[in-house]
């Protein structure tokens, strides 16, 4: 193998290996609901595989006469083919594992594939570098080439492929790149003409079969990863799937939305037929007398934004959403698609915390977050003391922050400690530097007068009036003993969570993310 060929092979091998790793991370992140520890376990399996592969490759790197020998290209081509095929099968392995054992056993497949992919680099270095005085320098060039290819694989796959194609398509594309590498090695190998043609023809046939097999082998991979043991071969199928570089959004047949594998809510704005706790969005009007300027961090299904945009007194709603896929999603559903044309609503695609840091001149009457699960990766960015202080600096006088604690005592304690005034509304915390209350009469007025796209939110019927009276009485729960679905005052919240051992969340301690390293959620 010539040195130039070795450089090219090292670069392409790095591109393929890191592209697969990006793909595997997307899969394990979805299967684990974005569990922080899942990435660490994936990385451990990947690095373990690389180490084992490199060690095994050493057994084939003892003959100094093999350096520069084009005869070795055929063996390297066969090895690269096997490595590529095994790596292509890792994603389906996660799907099979999820059905019976959830996602951890599939890490063994990651380790095996990484071992095979990891063995390519030392083999290339051995076969492509002559044992002379330039061996050390040439080895550094081989590694540099591999690093460049690896970086390119991460960037191209992570920012381009994931934003343009579905998971099965990307798997097929990476596999094809691997097959092109194998073909190049066979073409350059010292083979008889008939042998070279036969090998290339066989490889072409296998590549075609692989492409045709990908849709079947990767069939309903997201459904398999989410439903796990409840997956049914005949009936389980998502209503909608949106894939972008920012994540995977899936919608079940009943309209339940899962973002990155975690429950995100439902495409429903009905308070009278409440399927997703949407009454909590209306409650903002009961606690703030005139929320003219509202910032919402996170769009998700669009249901919350639709409600808040139609609350009395709201003049401007700014929504910051990190995943543009949600805009694609809500454009398909009648209940929420009017958001995209509502002149009061501005939707910005950005990270919420970054947006706040960059827009120091923007201040709001209310900041609303229907926050994701408190233990998911990166959730600290929206739950820590530092973030709450940042939000505080963006509140107008009398302004409040209203956000989902996902029932975490740590989140409740942090919120009630940072702000001197607080109420728990179901699993939400409303906090402010100014005194406020859950005003029963304003609550009633909101519920009786509010409309969405011209339609009243509660029917003018006997059932509607009975429902209204029941919902208005919710305001009285603040005066009773604390209950999980009721309203609770700050002092009571702090007393309870302190007794339970809750801690204040900071950017450094990331308490909620790491209280429990492994979690296995019940599938739908």
Description:
It is a single chain. With 524 residues, the protein is of the alpha/beta class. It has 2 domains: 3-225, Growth Hormone, Chain: A; 272-512, Vaccinia Virus protein VP39 (Rossmann fold, 3-Layer(aba) Sandwich). Helix content is 51%, strand content 13%. The strands form 3 sheets. An 8-stranded mixed β-sheet has the order 7-6-5-8-9-11-10-14, sandwiched between helices. Strand 6, helix 13 and strand 7 (345-349) form a beta-alpha-beta unit. The longest helix is centred in the N-terminal third of the chain and has 30 residues, at 135-164. The two termini are 53 Å apart.
Summary tags:
Growth Hormone, Chain: A, 524 residues, eight-stranded mixed sheet, Rossmann fold, 51% helix, 14 strands, four-stranded antiparallel sheet, alpha/beta, 2 domains, 20 helices
Please give a quick description of this structure.
The chain has helices at residues 3-31, 36-57, 72-88, 90-101, 107-128, 135-164, 167-188, 193-217, 221-227, 279-282, 284-287, 303-309, 325-330, 352-358, 385-392, 409-418, 440-449, 462-472, 490-499, 511-514; strands at 240-244, 247-251, 256-259, 262-266, 293-297, 316-321, 345-349, 364-369, 395-404, 421-425, 428-432, 451-452, 455-456, 487-489. It is α/β, with parallel strands linked by helices and 524 residues long. The strands form 3 sheets. Strands 7-6-5-8-9-11-10-14 form an 8-stranded mixed β-sheet, with helices on both faces. A 4-stranded antiparallel β-sheet has the order 1-2-3-4.
């Amino acid at each position: 193998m010539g040195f130039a060929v070795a450089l090219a092979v090292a670069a392409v091998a790095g591109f393929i290996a890191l592209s697969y790793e990006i793909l595997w991370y997307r899969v394990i992140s979805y299967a684990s609901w974005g569990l922080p520890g899942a990435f660490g376990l994936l990385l451990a399996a990947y690095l373990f595989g690389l180490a084992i592969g490199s060690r095994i490759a050493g057994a084939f790197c003892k003959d100094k006469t093999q350096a520069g020998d084009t005869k070795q290209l055929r063996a390297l081509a066969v090895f690269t083919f096997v490595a590529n095929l095994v790596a292509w099968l890792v994603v389906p392995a996660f799907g099979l594992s999820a059905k019976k054992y959830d996602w951890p056993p599939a890490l063994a497949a990651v380790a095996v594939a990484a071992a095979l992919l990891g063995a390519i680099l030392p083999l290339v270095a051995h076969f492509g570098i002559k044992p002379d005085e330039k061996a050390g320098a040439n080895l550094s060039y081989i590694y540099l080439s591999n690093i460049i290819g690896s970086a390119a694989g991460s960037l191209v796959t992570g920012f381009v492929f994931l934003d343009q194609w579905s998971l099965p398509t990307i798997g097929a594309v990476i596999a094809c790149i691997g097959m092109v590498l194998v073909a190049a090695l066979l073409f350059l190998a010292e083979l008889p003409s008939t042998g070279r043609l036969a090998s290339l023809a066989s490889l072409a046939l296998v590549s075609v079969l692989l492409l045709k097999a990908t849709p079947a082998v990767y069939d309903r991979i997201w459904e398999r990863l989410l439903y796990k043991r409840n997956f049914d071969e005949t009936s389980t199928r998502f209503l909608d799937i949106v894939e972008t570089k920012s994540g995977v959004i899936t919608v079940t047949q009943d309209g339940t939305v899962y973002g990155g594998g975690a429950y995100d809510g439902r495409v429903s704005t009905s308070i009278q037929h409440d399927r997703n706790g949407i009454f909590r969005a209306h409650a903002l009007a009961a606690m703030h007398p005139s929320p003219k300027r509202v910032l919402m961090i996170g769009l998700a299904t669009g249901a919350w934004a639709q409600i808040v945009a139609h609350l009395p007194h709201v003049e401007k709603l700014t929504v910051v959403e990190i995943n543009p896929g949600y805009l694609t999603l809500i454009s398909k559903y009648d209940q929420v698609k009017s958001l995209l044309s509502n002149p009061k609503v501005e939707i910005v695609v950005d990270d919420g915390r970054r947006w706040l840091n960059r827009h120091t001149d923007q201040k709001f009457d209310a900041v609303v977050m229907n926050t994701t699960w408190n233990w998911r990766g990166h959730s600290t960015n929206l739950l820590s003391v530092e973030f709450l202080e940042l939000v505080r600096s963006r509140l107008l006088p009398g302004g409040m922050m209203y956000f989902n604690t996902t029932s975490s005592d740590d989140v409740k304690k942090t919120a009630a400690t940072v702000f001197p005034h607080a109420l728990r509304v179901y699993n939400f915390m409303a906090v402010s530097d100014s005194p406020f209350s859950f005003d029963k009469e304003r609550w009633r007025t909101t519920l009786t007068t509010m409309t969405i796209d011209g339609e009243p939110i509660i029917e003018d019927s006997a059932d509607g009036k009975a429902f209204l009276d029941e919902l208005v009485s919710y305001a009285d729960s603040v005066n009773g003993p604390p209950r999980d679905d009721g309203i609770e005052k700050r002092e009571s919240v702090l007393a309870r969570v302190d007794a339970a051992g809750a801690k204040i969340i900071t950017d450094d301690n990331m308490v909620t993310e790491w209280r429990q390293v492994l979690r296995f959620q019940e599938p739908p």
